[in-house]
Amino acid sequence: MNSNLKMLGLALIIIGAILLILSYFLGWTNNNAVQFGSLSAMIVGLIAYIIFSKKALEENK
Is the CB of residue 13 less than 8 Å from the CB of residue 46? Predict the structure, then answer.
């Protein structure tokens, strides 16, 4: 279960990065909502990845 949650955090980081790349190529750079949404997805994904990785390491000890 925790490995799936850890992968969810990694997926959020990748989705946020893809959204930033798409917004650049599609010319959505003036739209702050898209930029903020992708930034928040990346931050939430990073925090989730760190928390669930730490919990998985503690369970394996």
Answer: yes
